[in-house]
C-alpha cells in the first residue's frame, strides 16, 4: 500500500510541474518577443525605406548613404537590398579615404556585404552590378586577391554588365598574375575604349613579355612622343633604350640612357643600363663609373655590386 501511494504521487506530480514550466516558458517567451518587437519597431522608424535609400544614393551623398545603409543592416541583417547598397557605398567611400588602413577596412566591408547579399539572393537584374563592384573591391585589395577579382569581373561580363573598363581591369589582373598571353588579349579590347597613358604603358610591357616587340615598341614610341605624364614619358624612353640594347643597337641605347639621365640624374635603371652599354663597348672605366653611381644611389643594388666585383 505505501508503495502504491508513492507511485501515484510520482505519476501525477511531474505532469503538473511540466505544465507549469511549459506555461511559464510561454509567458517569458511572449514577454521577450513583445519587448523585442517594441524595440525593433522603434528602431525601424529611423530606418530609411529602400526607395528613400535609393534616392539618397542617387543624390551623390556617398557618406550619408553608407551611414544609413549600416543602420538598416543592423535592423535587417539579411535584407539583400540594404546589404547591396552598403557594399556599393563602402567601396566608393573607400576611394575617398585618406589613409591606406581606412581604405582597406572599407574595401573589406564592401566585400563582406556584397558576398552576404549574393548569399541571401539578389534579383537577377542586380547581379551584374554586384559582381562588378565586388570585383573592383577585390582588385583594390591588391595582388593576392587578383584571382577573386578575375572571377567576379568575368561573372559581371557574363551577366550582362556593359561597363567598358572591365577589359582594362582584366588585362591588368592577368598581367599581375604574369599570364601575359591572356593579358595581351584583354589589352587589345581595352585599348579600343581607353588609350590612356598608364594603359598604353602596361600594354607595352605586356607585349614585350610575350615577345611582341614591334607592338611594344610602337606603343612606347607613341608615349615618348605624346604622353602627358612626364614620369610615363620617361619610363617609355627608358624601356626603348633597353629594347635597343637587347636588339644590339648600342648607339641608340647609349643615346636613350643619356637622355633619361638628363631628365632624371638619379635614375638607377638608366645608370645601370649605361654601365652595360660601356661594358659592351669595352669602356671599362666608363662602365665601372656607371656601376659605382648605381651603388651610390642604391647601396643594395645586387647586380651593380656583382659587376663591380668582376673584372671587366
From TrEMBL:
User: What transmembrane ranges does the database entry give?
Assistant: 20-39
Specify the superkingdom: Bacteria
Q: Which PROSITE patterns match?
A: TPR
Q: Does the keyword Transmembrane helix apply?
A: yes
Keyword vocabulary terms for this entry = Membrane, Repeat, TPR repeat, Transmembrane, Transmembrane helix
Please give the SUPFAM superfamilies that the UniProt record associates with this protein.
HCP-like (SSF81901), TPR-like (SSF48452)
Q: Which InterPro entries does the annotation name? A: CellSynth/LPSAsmb/PSIAsmb, TPR-like_helical_dom_sf, TPR_rpt
Q: Does the keyword DNA-binding apply?
A: no
Where are TPR repeat segments found? 268-301
UniProt protein name: Putative Tetratricopeptide repeat domain protein
Amino acid at each position: 500500500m505505501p508503495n502504491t501511494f508513492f507511485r501515484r504521487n510520482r505519476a501525477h506530480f511531474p505532469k503538473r510541474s511540466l505544465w507549469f514550466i511549459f506555461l511559464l516558458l510561454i509567458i517569458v517567451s511572449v514577454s521577450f518577443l513583445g519587448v523585442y518587437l517594441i524595440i525593433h519597431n522603434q528602431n525601424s522608424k529611423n530606418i530609411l525605406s529602400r526607395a528613400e535609400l535609393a534616392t539618397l544614393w542617387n543624390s551623390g551623398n556617398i557618406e550619408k548613404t553608407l551611414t544609413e545603409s549600416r543602420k538598416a543592416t543592423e535592423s535587417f541583417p539579411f535584407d539583400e537590398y540594404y546589404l547591396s547598397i552598403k557594399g556599393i557605398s563602402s567601396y566608393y567611400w573607400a576611394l575617398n579615404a585618406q589613409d591606406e588602413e581606412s581604405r582597406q577596412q572599407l574595401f573589406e566591408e564592401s566585400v563582406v556585404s556584397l558576398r552576404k547579399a549574393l548569399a541571401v539572393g539578389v534579383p537577377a537584374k542586380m547581379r551584374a552590378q554586384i559582381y562588378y563592384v565586388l570585383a573592383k573591391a577585390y582588385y583594390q585589395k591588391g595582388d593576392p586577391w587578383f584571382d577573386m577579382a578575375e572571377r567576379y569581373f568575368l561573372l559581371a561580363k557574363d551577366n550582362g554588365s556593359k561597363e567598358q573598363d572591365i577589359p582594362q581591369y582584366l588585362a591588368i589582373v592577368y598581367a599581375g598574375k604574369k599570364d601575359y598571353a591572356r593579358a595581351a588579349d584583354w589589352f587589345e579590347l581595352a585599348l579600343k575604349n581607353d588609350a590612356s597613358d598608364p594603359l598604353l604603358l602596361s600594354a607595352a610591357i605586356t607585349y614585350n613579355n610575350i615577345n611582341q616587340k614591334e607592338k611594344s615598341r610602337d606603343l612606347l614610341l607613341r608615349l615618348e612622343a605624346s604622353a602627358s605624364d612626364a614620369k610615363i614619358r620617361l619610363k617609355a624612353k627608358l624601356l626603348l633604350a633597353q629594347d635597343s640594347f637587347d636588339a644590339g643597337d648600342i648607339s641608340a641605347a647609349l643615346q636613350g640612357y643619356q637622355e633619361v639621365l638628363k631628365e632624371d640624374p638619379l635614375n638607377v635603371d638608366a645608370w645601370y643600363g649605361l654601365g652595360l652599354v660601356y661594358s659592351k663597348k669595352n669602356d671599362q672605366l666608363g662602365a665601372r663609373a656607371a656601376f659605382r653611381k648605381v651603388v651610390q644611389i642604391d647601396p643594395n643594388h645586387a647586380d651593380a655590386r656583382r659587376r663591380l666585383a668582376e673584372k671587366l
